[in-house]
Structure formats: C-alpha cells, structure tokens
Amino acid sequence: MSANLSALFYLVSGILFILALRGLSSPETSRQGNYFGISGMIISIVVTFLTVGSFGSGLLYVLIFLLIGGSIGAFIAFRIPMTAMPELVAGFHSLVGLAAVFVAISAFLKPDAFNLGEVGNIKLASLIEMSLGAAIGAITFSGSIIAFLKLRGIMSGSPITFKGQHLINLLLGLTILFLIFYLCKTQLPNIFWAIVFVSFVVGILLIIPIGGADMPVVISMLNSYSGWAAAGIGFTLENTALIITGALVGSSGAILSYIMCKGMNRSFFNVILGGWGATDQSSSAQSKEQKPVKNGNADDAAFLMKNASSVIIVPGYGMAVAQAQHALREMVDSLKKNGVKVSYAIHPVAGRMPGHMNVLLAEANVPYDEVFELEEINNDFANCDVAYVIGANDVTNPVAKSDPQSPIYGMPVLDVEKSKSVLFVKRSLSPGYAGIDNDLFYRDNTLMLFADAKKMTEEIVKSL
Amino acid sequence: MEIDPFIFRLSIFILSIFVGYYVVWSVTPSLHTPLMSVTNAISSVIIVGAIIAALAGMSENIFEVSNIFGYLAIILAAINIFGGFLVTQRMLQMYKKKKK
Among A76, A246, A362, whose Cβ lies nearest the Cβ of B95? Predict the structure, then answer.
C-alpha cells in the first residue's frame, strides 16, 4: 500500500477515535462510540500490516504476540471487579508508557526501518521526538506503577516526602533536557539509555509525595502523559493516527485533572507538590475535645427514611471499600416501594478516579437518571427530609463554606446539612483524608451510624 | 519555498488538541471512568509503531534486539487494546435508564 493511501486510512482511524470520545456525551450513544473506537483500531492495525507488506514468518510472530497480549487483556477485562477500576486504569497507563519506551528504543536501534536515517546519523528532529516520546513514556510507566501500588494498597497511600524533593525533581528534569541536547550532538546509545533511566526515576519521585485521596488527579494526569508520549512517538513515526490520538488523550487527561483540582479547590501544583495528609497531621491531633454526637442504630435510620418523602444518598470512597453499592440499591428499592423519592448526589472527587461512584452505582443497577452531579442537586438538599451519607466525609464538611482558616475552605461541598436530618454512616469519628474534623458530626440534625457501610445498609434493609 | 512536512504534522497535532478539548468537555461527568478506559485503549494505537519495529529488517534476522522490543511492545499494546475496549464495553453496558 502506498504511503499516501495509508496516511489517508490513518486519518480515518483518527476521526473514528474522535467519534469514540464524542459518543461518551451521553450513555445512549456511548456504546456506539466504543464500536467506532474499535473500528478505528482495526483499520490502523490492518493498514500497518499492508504498508509494511512483508508476509513472512515475522508476520506470524506478530500475530502470535498480538493474540497473547489480546487474551491477557480480555481475561483481565472480564475478571476485574468494578471496585478495582482505578488500579486497572493506572496499570493500563503504565503499559502504554512502556510500549512507547520500547517503540522509541526500537526506532533508535534501527532507524532505517522507520525511515529516520541510519544508526549514528539519525535525523535531528526524529531524535528529539523519539527521546521526548521515550522520556514521557518512561515517566508515565514508573509513575503509573507507583499509582497502581498505592491504589492496590500494596504501597501505603500516605504521601512520602523528604527535604529537597522538589529541587531534586527539578534537577532531574533539567538533566533529561540536557541529555537530549547531548544526544543530538553525539548520537551515543548510552546517552539514550541514560535518558530512559533518569525518566523512570523522575516518574517514581513525581508520584510518591501524592496522597491516596488525590489519586483522581494523579490518574488523570498520567492519562494525559500517556497521550503526550503516544504523540511523541507519532511524530517520530510520522503517523497521523498516533498524533491525533495522542493529542486527544493528552487533552482529555488534562481536562480531567483540571476538573478534579477544581472539585477540591486546589491548584494543580498544590496537588502535585504533595498531599494534605503530610502537612496537617499535627493540627488534627491537637483539638481532641469531646463534643457530643447523636448515636443511632439501623432501626432509627429505617424509621426516619421510611417516613420521609425524599431521601438523597451521598456515596463516597468508603462505599467502594465496603462494596456496599448492591446493599444500597436494595435499600433504595424498598424505600421506593414505600413511596419515598430517592436520588443520588455525587461529588466530583468522590472515590479514587473521575466517575468512580457512577460506575459502581451503574454496576448495582442504579439507573443513571437518578444520579446527579453536585451542581444539579445541591439546591435540593434544603427540601429533602433525609440525607444518607455513606462513605463520604470531607466533601460534606460545612467548614469548607464557613471557616477561612480550614485547609479545605472554598472547596465545593454538598450542602448535606441543609436537609432535615442527616444519617452519617461511618466506622468512627476519625477525620477524613484532609485531616480535619467534620463539623457535620456534631450538628443537631445529624444521626451518626457507627458501622461498616455495607453491614449498616443491610441491617437497614432488614428493618424496613 | 517548500513547507517542511513537520509543520503539517504539527498543525494536525494542535488542531487535534482543540478538537479533544471541546469533545472532552461535552463528555457527561458520569462517564468519566469509561472516558479514561477508552482513551487508554485508543492510545494503544501505538501498536502501529510496535508492528513496524517487530517487522523491521526481517529478511536478515527476526530476533534482533530491535525486533524483540517490537514484540514486547506488541504484547503490551495488545493487552491495552483488548483490555481497554472490553472493559469500557462492560462498563457502558451497565448504564441503564429508569424502567418506566
């Protein structure tokens, strides 16, 4: 196939990928969008085969490896529980990053196969593009591995910080740029390996100071990086599909990071430069005066909700940890049978990745038109009888609106306290991720339900 | 004077960033998780480079170091392609409207 023809087909793939993202503007069109994406991918792969054109034993190997990878991927996709979605996505990002590194290495070792010049005499532009692709890919890889380990709980979610951390990162970043410059002058393979190695280290150092609940930002950011890495390789290979896709994914991840940061009223750099948990541990320990809380049980909760006319459910990460989404749906079903109007309120940063809660509720067969975003539902709390807070904490803290001293001041929160009564399911009175006490616990209209989210919800179902 | 093809690719790149910007803002927040998994799947179109790498100069020897990196990249990208699209499909299947 001629280079021009294949370039046109790659353009078609790129457009199909745009349509795949476009489909996600509503759940109805989303499945069709996914098929667009799949077709774009098939076109790209087939066109590549036809362009390379040699159908020897090598093709067989390529197909075998494709099938090996494909079956591993399919196996994972069918087996993974929905609660593990954040770590799955982090893991997948690491694979894209590593694949970008491998392709860049391969292009560096055999530039003639990619039309980039010869060994020791690679075109300047290609050299810059492939080393940028390799560097960003390596950062994506090691950063995503750390994010994966933190989300999976293999590594502690608390931020790891040390003195001079940001200075070291800055120096390492400059080192990478210097090495790329040096590589362009000398074309020495060892410099190329050094770029890859230093980038791996940067990826690790970049993610370790970020705490568990900031993971939505981290995952989005790594999503963005994987896109930029793909675009870098796309420039090297002069491949339109890869350039378009890289740009789409890069901007998609950047927008998601922005939305997540806005959901916490923090700047991107504030998140990247280290977690709240590290700075505020001291302040959470000092004010341990006992304030009275109202303590309730499942029967109280069931009674309150059964006699309510409207209930709003506020799920958070704790619901995911306790796997309480199915029990929750059962509870809502029996409430609906009693004629109670129920809706769900989702804070943008609830959970460990963007849209995490929505997927879990969808898994439990909650119709998506009963689930609302913060801006859509926040005014309804004032007219609602019961707010059932399950596994959320900081995102309901009224302090964010009233106390300018608080670290979370200015963060958009759900106006849970405006509802007639609040049921707060929580295991203890311990503060949330931000390390600050939730004022909501001590309000007159709050009833604390001290228990595991799933157990409590199941007990309520029984008493309904 | 002739325009360097790089400028054309750069134009495509920058226009695509704008397209991405507007398309992604129109994605409903409830589908942000599938958005991440599908962007992940499509960025694995990097497999194109992996295939070229794997088949590079195969007339001589198909197990040179550069080919091996190509094979490895194919496996990684294939995991992502199949895993990414299938898990997205699985998630999207779960989003249902209220039964009337």
Answer: A362
Residue with tokens 């930002």: A217
How distant, in Å, are the alpha carbons of A69, A301, A442, B42 from that of A464?
49, 9, 26, 47
Chain A partners within 8 Å of B81 (Cβ): 41, 69-70, 73
What distance in Å separates residue B65's CA from the closest CA in chain A?
8
**Residue A394 appears among annotated catalytic residues:** yes
CB-CB neighbors (< 8 A) of B69 in chain A:
102-103, 105-106, 109
Q: Using the 8-state DSSP alphabet, how is residue A340 labeled?
A: -
Interface test with A, best of B7, B18, B39, B40 (most A CBs within 10 A): B39
Q: What is the pLDDT of residues B28-68, one digit of tens each?
A: 999 999 999 999 999 999 999 999 888 876 656 667 888 88
**Secondary structure (H, E, C), chain B:** CCCCHHHHHHHHHHHHHHHHHHHHHCCCHHHHHHHHHHHHHHHHHHHHHHHHHHHCCCCCCCCCHHHHHHHHHHHHHHHHHHHHHHHHHHHHHHCCCCCC
Which residues have C-beta within 8 Å of that of residue A244, sequence separation ≥ 6? A11, A14, A15, A17, A18, A234, B12, B13, B16
| Whether the predicted pLDDT of A258 surpasses 70 | yes
Give A216's contacts (C-beta < 8 A, 6+ positions apart): A260, A263, A349, A351, A352, A353, A354, A356
Tell me phi and psi for residue A310, to 5 degrees.
-140, 140
Tally Cβ neighbours within 10 Å of residue A286: 7
What is the C-alpha separation between A371 and A90, in angstroms, rounded? 26
Q: Find tokens 């769900």 and name the residue.
A: A344
Question: Which positions ≥6 away from A190 have C-beta within 8 Å?
Answer: none
* Residue B5 burial class via C-beta count within 10 angstroms: exposed 0-12, middle 13-18, buried 19 and up: exposed
Q: How far is CA A1 from CA A123, A195, A235, A464, in A?
A: 25, 35, 21, 68
Q: Per residue in A317-340, is it b (16+ CB within 10 Å) or e — as a string? A: bbbbbbebbbbbbebbebbeeeeb
Residue A447 pairs in a beta bridge with A423
Report the distance separating Cα A409 and Cα A223, nearest Å.
28
Q: How far is residue A69's CA from residue B44's CA, in Å, rounded to a whole number? A: 12
pLDDT tens digit sequence for A73-91: 999 999 999 888 999 999 9
- To the nearest whole percent, how much of chain A has pLDDT over 90? 51
**Spatial distance between the Cα atoms of A413 and A401, rounded to a whole number of angstroms:** 8
* pTM assigned to the model: 0.90
**Chain B residues with CB-CB distance to A358 below 8 A:** 29-33
